[in-house]
Amino acid sequence: MSAPAERVAAVILAAGEARRFAGPKQLAPLDGRPMVQHVLDAANGSTLVDVILIVGHCAEEVLAAVHLGRARAVRNDDYTAGQATSLRAGLRAASEADAVIVLLGDQPRVTSELLDALVERQRTSGAAAVVSSWRGRRSPPTLLHRDLWPAVETLSGDVGAREVLAGRDDVEVLEVDERLGSL
Questions:
Q1: Which residues, 6 or more positions from 138, have their beta carbon under 8 angstroms from its beta carbon?
Q2: Which pLDDT value is given to residue 181?
Q3: 134 in helix, strand or coil?
Q4: How many angstroms separate the CA atoms of 64 and 82, rounded?
């Protein structure tokens, strides 16, 4: 079991090229704002101690289009090598945190309440990770305790933490309902 995470940061992965999407997906308009702005707003409205936006592809366009609020941007110049590079950049930027919640820049329906619920579940359970689940399907955002970071550092390519979490018995699942948002 992991210690309760007192200092939890958000790491928003928004560096990818979104090759299957016409243009930078993180900038796709939704309700009058770029998609990634919705994620930033949820993280900024939460109790998380730090909000880190990882940018890479079209970094200047993304930064010009969003209001960071209390968030800070970190550039991942190695973004073409896959999502694992952005995840590692986020962990390194969150060096003062006990845990991070990894969010994707294209999940505009994530809420501050969901992020706070992930933190609360970790604190009460002692889990090394807390994974969100929407209608039985696991998906980010995912809380990763510092205990897992050395394993995450070994990842490469276009993968997230799923490989690190597979088969572990210290992973909690938080079923998301309409009260907490949607994924």
A1: 131, 132, 173
A2: 67
A3: strand
A4: 23
Side-by-side strand order, sheet with 8-14: 72-75, 50-55, 8-14, 99-104, 137-145, 129-134, 171-176
Give Cα separations from 150 to 36, 91, 121, 146, 171 (angstroms): 28, 10, 22, 8, 16
- Cβ 14 vs Cβ 26: under 8 Å: yes
* Tokens found for residue 81: 């090598």
With CA atoms as reference, report the closest residue to 182 among 114, 103, 131. Answer: 114
CA distance 5 to 3: 6
The two tokens of residue 79 are: 């973004």
- How many CB atoms within 10 Å of residue 113? 15
Tell me: cis bond preceding 150? Omega within 30 of 0 counts: no
Greater model confidence, 136 or 144: 144
**pTM beyond 0.85, yes or no:** yes
